[in-house]
Design brief:
Blueprint lengths: L8 H13 L5 E6 L10 H12 L3 H12 L10 H5 L4 E7 L2 E10 L3 E2 L2 E2 L1 H25 L5 H14 L11 E5 L6 H16 L3 E4 L8 H12 L7 E5 L1 H4 L10 E4 L3 H11 L2 E4 L4 H14 L11 E5 L4 H15 L1 H4 L3 E4 L2 H21 L14 H4 L6 H5 L9 H20 L1 H10 L2 E4 L2 H16 L13 E4 L1
Parallel strand pairs: 6-7, 6-10, 7-8, 8-9, 10-11, 11-12, 13-14
Antiparallel strand pairs: 1-3, 2-3, 4-5
Helix pairs in contact: 2-5, 3-5, 6-10, 7-8, 7-14, 11-17, 12-19, 17-18
Amino acid sequence: MVGGARVTGQQKRLHDEMSETYAPLPTVNTRISPRGGLDILSRTEIARLTDATQGSLRETLRRCALAVLTVGSDSDDPRAASLRYPDFDIEVQQMDRGIRLELKNAPAIAFVDGELIRGVADLLFAVVRDIAYTAIEVQSGQFDLESSEGLTSAVFEILRNARAMRPHQDPNLVVCWGGHSIGRDEYMYTKKVGYELGLRGLDICTGCGPGAMKGPMKGATIAHAKQRQRNPRYIGMTEPGIIAAESPNPIVNQLVIMPDIEKRLEGFVRLGHGIIVFPGGVGTAEEILYLLGILLHPDNAGVPFPLVFTGPKASAEYFEQIDRFIRLTLGDAAASRYKIIVDDPVAVAKAMKEGMKAVREHRISNRDAFFFNWALKIPFAFQQPFEPDHAAMAALDLHFGRPVHELAADLRRAFSGIVAGNVKEPGMRRIEQHGPFEIHGDAAIMASLDNLLRAFVEQRRMKMSGEYKPCYRVVA
């Protein structure tokens, strides 16, 4: 039995095969004291923190901590780290003057001469901070999680507690979306774009992982150094279900773990001032549909939000496929909300810089904060957590005749389910037990969706490691 579920013969064979692939690696035992946000706590806070991390959250804490201790991992299999470090454990201990983290059998790659690398330590403290805050404050009834306003307030408080918002600063945060499984040419292009953004004083926020999430940060570090920019931000925003498959890249200097994918997506659009989309797979498509669905809501018609799709010349066809899918499903109005710029990093950076001016003027005229986009209307359907099981995936309403922002919400859920089946452990278990998810809808939408997903598979955008076996079946 694993987690209360019976292990099938197929699951045991998969586990045995993975165990052979991911042999255990050297480990270290140590104790560390936290800094920044967890170094000064009241006795009540310490007691609540230790209680929260000793109970049902212990496995979540362990999984997320292991992900940051294996920073820069080249695997997108969420079970790989656990198989490489099967005896790893983390415990939050209550001390007279605060807390202490005890690490048992921690990955040796996170240490230098017996000392935990400082950047890794910062990410580890962020894990404890965010998981504990979510358990103690967000899920304890402090916020009305059944209302749109309450969910937005929860997102705001998580970001504020993580110190991710920077007051007294003009809009300058660019969110970069794109796949973790991209080709070398595409990765180098993301670095060039990041470099041009950094030269113009723009900071970077991504999903924190490898590929298109790492490239812009890496490029920006050189540009920020050239411009002698102090305290640049490289924000990585993730959630517990995906962090094990997308371990933070080493450049992230502010890690934020949101409770679920919906709050993560809201965090991106509330915190960022503009978004760049690089080539990616289903996760990137999910993000695009989420944002376009919001921007298509009538209340957001006048809200400026610079959005650019870009990649090297070889990726032009990828964006043509995305553009065709969007125009078919959501219409030309959706396509009018983004620009496609191919093979021109300077033009991308200039478009973002110009977009920031429009954002600044709009925020001033509407007396909105620079550090959090309060004015953006996010419908409740985009905020509700979606649990992708077989019944929920089959029940999605993917038909024409609905308001476009509502159709976008269900299309987003379809891609979210595929992400879960690809790289999230609960979703992978469901596929192993019951077979692929079935996605039903209008014949034209299903044909376009099937073509897009087939292209992702052929271009190896679904998985970074191993052969891809589809976790879905499109049914017209």
